[in-house]
Design a protein that fits this description.
Blueprint: H1 9-12, E1 26-28, H2 34-44, H3 47-60, E2 66-68, H4 74-85, H5 88-94, E3 101-102, E4 120-121, H6 124-131, E5 141-148, H7 154-164, H8 182-187, E6 194-202, E7 205-213, H9 221-228, E8 233-239, H10 246-257, E9 261-267, H11 276-287, E10 295-296, H12 306-315, E11 328-337, E12 341-350, E13 352-354, E14 358-361, E15 367-369, E16 372-376, E17 380-383, E18 385-387, E19 391-395, E20 409-412, E21 430-436, H13 442-455, E22 460-466, E23 470-477, H14 480-494, E24 498-500, E25 523-529, E26 535-540, H15 550-557, E27 576-583, E28 586-587, E29 593-596, H16 600-614, E30 622-628, E31 631-638, H17 654-674, H18 681-693
The structure holds guanosine-5'-triphosphate (GTP).
Guanosine-5'-triphosphate binds next to helix 7.
């Protein structure tokens, strides 16, 4: 039995240290006790992590400790961020232990520690103030997105705005901090819209600026359109050298249609080839925005960026919301955290939400208890409440994609509201099959795909299987880059290894073999769902379309699952014709048939082909014809046997051979005239089946 040791004197008497400001690669937790740390160890750390994290704890050996991450181990980074994300700092504060720690953006897992951001440490008072969101009345809130063509400088401008508002420190390492994903860092492009709440003091007023940095590439335009639903304005960034490009126009119209205020920002004016005046004129001409409304900046150097903040406050209206109404929150994005479940990004259109509230999803009608609310600053910063007009995150124990629908409306239990319109679903353009490299990994890959599609709702997923690759999925993407990024994220964020088939685009195909019912001139009467797995379909069929092989075809198409029954529905008017089948000009009475006018040609052709296959070759040629009245609509020929009349001629005179062949041809002519073609019995059955299946 292990005995608990009493805390040593040195620990109790440890002086309170001043929080180191801006300490790099470290987390300052103030007077966090060993008890809290060890409980955290118990809750979330594996033995390896405990050992590694234990090293700096032991060496510090004080109540007041600074956790240094001892190695670039990716999993350690993940754990540290999980702890911070779980509100460790806030927890310590609520117990009166500590100053809290608000950090820079999460390090990308597996990245070298040098790329990690600087931590920013707040005083207790600052931290307490951060938790109270009631200090921002609606008129002091501005919600806006930064939109632009690819590489025109959105993320760089976002960095400057974060710095100007004191959200992050101005250091070499804080570059494109809102591009948090490893794939974004590696490729140098934004693929995921990121929200950041900035606190800004202007002329004695405290403003809350909710900024959403969006991707520029067309494959991720769904991110832009969703982000705009949480905004009242956009910063339309245009490169001073390249001018207006395709995505500039597309994004402008997205904002215009959503009736948002558009602030044109001409960026990169520091470039040698920059021509801001030309771009100003373009903007005026194409978007009808007066040139004097354009703000010329260099996001890279920080030139004139302050005036962008001014314009946001002056030109973008505050949200039109009502705090006194019952809660109405739009879920506009979400991510999955393995410890906390779904983290939903929400924009509050009405009311207030607090930790502990019972909320209902309009989509699933399920009730949840709110475990945490907060803002992204730019990382998760828990707050006491979120108020209408604000944008933040909410954790309520939702566990999967079905529960956490993007576009869903959340409201308070027993206070139902009219759901918000939500979003149009994305239309995939490129499709590819995805299979686990090893079939035993199927379930893990399934769960990884589900979690990732939660964060990227524009991907469509359908189950599929292949003889060679086994069970898998057919995924739909908005483009090739989107497909590559999704695959890369699966590998990097979920450690999944997959086989991705060659991408294809959608085709519209008419599957003649499976249109079993339509092809038989049926008219649907009704459809009744008997239970979850069975449906009853009622059709009006012409009887001659089902008598012969309909049931066989139905069984084979449905792998034996479908059953069939019919009853007489009386006579109906139809355009029918009588079709004769002729053998060497003589009608075969047994094969005379009545068919629908539109199908006469195809049935006639098929019958002739079947007869050709079924009739034995004879000494004379047989002409098989299908006719409607005197009009021949199809013809096949069965060639005659040719007896080798020259067999006995060894060498000899050519005139003798010609004489024999001529005599044979004359004999055949006579045969043709008197020829009475014998039709075997099974040919009739084959022919009847042909007629029916056409
Ligand atoms: N010279 C100069 N370069 C800039 C400026 N702003 C951004 N850049 C550079 O332009 C490149 C693209 O910048 P980003 O901020 O990533 O552009 P983005 O629009 O966010 O890119 P996507 O999100 O991928 O569309 C980077 O190399 C930046 O350093 C600027 O004001 N001047």
């Amino acid at each position: 039995m292990s005995r608990r040791r009493a805390p040593c004197r040195r620990q109790q008497a440890a002086p309170r240290r001043a929080a180191p400001s801006g300490c790099f690669r470290s987390w300052y937790l103030g007077r966090a006790t060993r008890g809290l740390l060890s409980s955290l160890h118990r809750v979330c750390l594996s033995p390896v992590h405990r050992t590694l994290l234990g090293v700096p704890l032991k060496t510090n050996g004080l109540c007041c400790c600074c956790l240094l991450v001892p190695s670039p181990d990716a999993s350690i980074a993940r754990v540290m961020w999980t702890l911070v994300g779980r509100g460790w700092g806030a927890h310590a504060l609520s117990r009166g232990w500590a100053t809290g720690a608000a950090l820079g953006p999460a390090p990308t897992f597996g990245a070298a520690p040098e790329s990690w951001p600087t931590c920013r440490v707040y005083s207790s008072a600052e931290f307490k103030e951060k938790l109270d969101m009631s200090r921002f009345p609606v008129e002091n809130i501005r919600n806006f997105s930064i939109v632009a063509h690819v590489d025109h400088g959105k993320s760089t401008l976002a960095d400057r705005l974060l710095e100007l508002t004191g959200t992050i420190d101005k250091t070499e390492n804080n570059k494109q901090v809102l591009d948090k994903l490893q794939v974004e860092r590696e490729r140098g492009i934004t693929v995921k819209a990121q929200t950041a709440s900035l606190f800004y003091n202007c002329e004695g007023k405290q403003y809350l600026l909710n900024l959403i940095d969006t991707p520029g590439h067309v494959d991720f335009s769904y991110e832009v359109s969703r982000s705009l639903s949480a905004c009242q304005g956009v910063l339309l960034v245009v490169d001073a050298n390249e001018g207006i490009q395709a995505q500039t126009v597309a994004n402008f119209f997205l904002a215009f249609e959503a009736q948002l205020s558009v602030i044109p920002v001409i960026n990169k004016i520091d470039l040698k080839n920059a021509d801001p005046e030309r771009v100003e004129n373009q903007i005026e001409k194409v978007f009808d925005i007066p040139s004097d409304e354009c703000i010329k900046i260099s996001a890279k150097l920080g030139t004139n960026v302050e005036s962008v903040l001014q314009a946001v406050i002056e030109r973008i209206p505050p949200p039109k919301v009502h705090r006194k109404n019952p809660l109405r929150a739009l879920v506009f994005d979400s991510t999955f955290d393995q410890y906390r479940g779904v983290i939903a990004n929400v924009a509050l259109f009405d009311g207030v939400v607090s930790k502990g509230d019972k909320i209902v999803s309009a989509h699933t009608q399920k009730t949840y208890e709110v475990n945490e609310v907060g803002v992204l600053n730019p990382n998760e910063q828990p707050t006491h409440k979120l108020y209408a007009g604000q944008v933040g995150y909410l954790i309520a124990g939702m566990k999967n994609v079905i529960e956490a629908q993007i576009g869903d409306t959340l409201y308070l239990h027993k206070q139902p509201v009219e759901p918000l319109p939500g979003f149009k679903s994305a239309k995939p353009m490129v499709f590819a099959g995805m299979y686990p490299v090893d079939q035993s990994e199927y379930n893990n890959l399934k769960s990884a795909i589900e979690k990732l599609t939660l964060n990227d709702s524009s991907v469509t997923v359908h189950r599929d299987s292949s003889l060679a690759l086994g069970a898998g999925w057919r995924l739909g993407f908005l483009g090739l880059l989107h497909m590559e990024v999704f695959n890369q994220r699966l590998e990097q964020e979920y450690n999944a290894s997959v086989i991705l088939t060659t991408p294809t685009v959608p085709y519209k195909a008419v599957l003649s073999s499976s249109k079993l019912i339509k092809a038989r001139r049926a008219v649907q009467k009704n459809m009744i769902f008997i239970d979850q797995n069975r449906v009853m379909l009622k059709y009006l069929f012409p009887l001659n379309e089902i008598v012969v092989d309909f049931y066989d075809s139905l069984k084979s198409l449905s792998s034996g699952y479908a059953s069939f029954d019919y009853e007489d529905a009386g006579y109906q008017t139809a355009e029918l014709v009588k079709m004769d089948i002729l053998l060497n000009g003589n009608t075969v009475e047994e094969l005379v048939t009545v068919v629908h006018k539109d199908k006469a040609h195809s049935i006639g052709k098929a019958i002739c082909e079947r007869l050709k296959d079924s009739l034995p070759r004879q000494l004379f040629e047989i002409a098989i014809q299908a006719a409607i009245g005197s009009k021949i609509i199809a013809r096949e020929t069965v060639k005659a046997y040719r007896k080798n009349v020259l067999a006995k001629c060894y060498g000899g005179d050519i005139t003798r051979k010609m004489k024999l062949l001529k005599r044979q041809a004359e004999g055949k002519k006579k045969l043709r005239k008197i020829g009475n073609v014998e039709v075997p019995k099974d040919a009739f059955i084959k022919v009847l089946k042909t007629r029916s299946s056409k």
